[in-house]
Amino acid sequence: MYSVVPIRNMLQIFTFSILKTFTKKSFITFSFLFFSQQMFAQLTDSFQDSDFLNDPSWSGQNTKFTVLANQLKLQAPAVSDDAYLSTPSKSINDASWEFYIRLGFNSSSTNYARVYLVSSQQNLADTLNGYFVMVGNTADEISLYKQTGSSKSKIIDGVDGKLNLATAEVKVRVTRDASGNWQLYSDVGTTGNYISEGSVTDAEHFSSSYFGVYCSYTATRSDKFYFDDFVVTGNPYVPPVPPSFKDIVFTEIFADPSPRVELPETEYLELFNRSNNAYNLSGWKLSDGSSTATLPSYKLNPGEYVLLVASSSVASYITFENVVGLSSFPSLNNTGDIIVLKHTNGITIDSVKYSDDWYRDDEKKQGGWSLELIDPNNPCGEENNWTASEAENGGTPGEQNSVFANKPDLTAPKLMAAIPIGDNQLRLVFDEKLLNEIPIAEHFNFQPAVDIDHIDFEDQSLRVLTVSFSNPLQRNILYTIDVQQVFDCSGNEIQASFSTLEFALPEQANDLDVKVNEVLFNPRPTGVDFLEVVNTSNKYLNLKGWSLATFENDSLGKLYTVTNEDFLLRPGAYLVLTENTDVLAGEYPQTKTENVLEVKALPSLNDDTGSIAVVSEQGVVIDHFAYTKDYHSVFIKDEEGVSLERISFEETTNDPDNWKSASTQSGYATPGFINSNARNETAIAENITISPEIFTPIIGQPDFTEIQYKFDQGGYVANVKVFDANGRLTKQLANNELLGTEGFLRWDGDRDDGSKARVGYYMVWFQVFDATGSVKTFTKKLAVAAKF
To answer: What are the boundaries of the region Disordered (predicted)?
Structure first.
């Protein structure tokens, strides 16, 4: 269907469109002109109107000046004094100043003129911040000075003696760009040819309010200063846009330069401006927690990199672009450190808590290679967004990284731990960097209710929040915290399924509050050792500062730290300690990785005989286990990859009869969950059950059956067979298989040759035996059915 617009309406629309377009263009033109006038300042005065009080308006010691023959002239009383006039001027960036001056005398230390190009104050005889051209004085020169308060310093030293004349007549031109680069020119005698007096870079003072003249004179020279043809153009100082969090980011970290690959054997950090604004880094602070360096003046434009090195290392990086030396460059720790970049206002612009694990390469983490940020537009990715450089020389200082790629952060943050710190604070640990804004207390819900006093970030990593309470937490009470509307650095809101945790005040551990529960000391060549412990107490325990060690002759060996961070182990919790979680999970896919804590190193666990102890922060041995490979089942042909499991928490740790090889069905280890040999401490009846007793293979519901078993102990070896009604072997389900305390075997109604079993009755023959020679036999009936 087509809509028809009346001609009148069409004309109205057309007319409105023209008006709208005209209005928009007019507005744009007006805005541009207004903007230009604001940005481009101009001052001219040749005194053709014989007036210095208007257009422009000069003010100061007006009674000491006059206009004579279209020139501004000093006409002061015949006494030794000084005099000044000034007029508003904001020109300083990409600016130029031109003027004519005539001194009707040979200048001296008491008879000279200053022309203030830049001044923060109207009164040029008072303290101020600015720049002026000195005309005359003892050296009879034309020089550029900087004034800070009452202190004056020469920054361009003009040629001496140029004004050593009975009457000095000169035209002066000065220019300054937006970076503070000054050029001074003079034309003595007004010949039309300017000669350079020198150049300098100085940006200490970056704004202006006034332009003016100042005369120092004696009684005989009080009417012999003449000024004319002032022309001042340029842009006013515009306060820079303050940087926001992550406008400038760390993109490369070279913390371990030895052994050398190809890069200089000195540390560096690389910054990248990912914003649309240029920033001067002057006064910004770089720190690593133990030392702080102040950055010098350096303009970092959008899309540019800058390399920060120690001042002593600048020469080593002479062939690289955009290198800035710092006199107090922080010493970067090889294994990990926290680096922070702050603006002059104290606001954090970027921070990174790096680790040598971020290399993801055991060879490169040894030194000579840099860590590179993968995606600068995802500066919040932390460990997921950093990796070892792939450049042949070991890094890419001052240029785009070798691993540059699009890697956006689309994953919401998770609350990983809630750990009380004393009675009045709770430490909340998240899995990634949060938005640099303190969440509000109303979004933290506690059961039972607690009153929040305030919330803070623990450090610059922005991964940990500290919640402080108005009243202390109570002991022996289980609390729940639910966190809402907390966002990661990229703006992703916390995952609902990872926003709630339980916690309680931790207590000091006593002997056997934590028990050794499983040990793998002889892993496969592709595997790793692990130790599993269980909190068998009713306490919440903080494992910060705990350690592991060998334990022989009642003496501890070298201590290996479990964690230097707060880690709360709740009652009944299983915890696996290993050097590589990924390898462990690859060897045993059923691993409960949420119950695994990766450690830097484990004590040496020998393949034949060894020991291991769990030691509290106070140095108390909480539990220890001395093992030998003889604890394994005699029916295990190869102990590689088979863990030893504890049978009972009620029995002593070092009772050999309290340990069994993990079952075949468990995959020979149960990291992070109940042992396959764990004994139910309440008496149970040994039994074999079939569920269901009738099933229909392939097309039935269900189409298989389970032969379930339950024993009062693990370690039995089983042979399980299925016979038909005529006593013929149909299927062997287990052949000398090591069992745990309970489990099941599955039969899909197939035969050993792969064909389908016939409809009819069958018998399951289930025989187990142990190392003592004890044999138990069970028989059960079941039926294979069919649909008609």
So the answer is: 381-405
Question: Which residue is it, tokens 């468990």?
Answer: 666
CA distance 569 to 517: 15
Rounded CA-CA distance 178/710 in Å is: 84
108: exposed, middle or buried (Cβ count in 10 Å: 0-12, 13-18, 19+): middle
User: Cα Rg for the chain, rounded, in angstroms?
Assistant: 42
Give the integer Cα–Cα distance in Å for 739 and 662.
8
Name residue 683's beta-bridge partners: none
Give the H/E segment covering residue 16: helix 7-39
Tokens linked to 262: 């190809």
**For residues 629-647, average pLDDT:** 91
The CA-based angle 213-214-219, given to 5 degrees, is: 135
Residue 363 amino acid letter: E
Phi and psi at 25, nearest 5°, equal -65, -40
Say how far apart CA 266 and CA 258 lie, in whole Å: 8
Model pLDDT for residues 194-246, shown as the tens digit of each residue: 999 999 999 999 999 999 999 999 999 999 999 999 999 999 988 878 899 99
> Torsions phi, psi of 356, nearest 5?
-70, -10
Its pTM stands at: 0.53
Handedness of CA 307, 310, 315, 316 (dihedral sign): negative
**CATH superfamily of the 514-661 domain:** Lamin Tail domain (2.60.40.1260)
574-578 and 596-598: which strand pairing? parallel
Whole-angstrom CA distances from 165 to 140, 217, 407, 563, 608 are 9, 17, 72, 82, 103
Region 248-388: CATH code: 2.60.40.1260
- Whether the Cβ atoms of residue 670 and residue 662 lie closer than 8 Å to each other: yes
- Site of tokens 């009652």: 571
Which residues are 195's β-sheet partners? 186
Rounded to the nearest 5 percent, the helix, strand and coil shares of the chain are 10, 40, 50
The strand pair at 717-724 and 514-520 is best described as unpaired
User: Which residues have a Cβ under 8 Å from the Cβ of 403 and sit 6 or more positions away?
Assistant: 372, 374, 387, 389, 390
Q: How many CB atoms lie within 10 A of CB 39?
A: 14
For the chain, domain boundaries: 43-236, 248-388, 415-500, 514-661, 687-784
Fold matches, 43-236 and 415-500: no
Question: Which CATH entry fits the domain spanning 43-236: 3.40.50.970, 1.10.730.10, 2.60.120.200, 3.40.47.10?
Answer: 2.60.120.200
CB 331 within 8 A of CB 291: yes
Fold of 687-784: Immunoglobulin-like (2.60.40)
Domain 415-500 grouped into CATH 1.10.1140.10: no
Least confident of 18-22, 274-278, 360-364, 492-496: 18-22
- Distance between CA atoms of residues 614 and 561, nearest Å: 10
DSSP state of 21: H
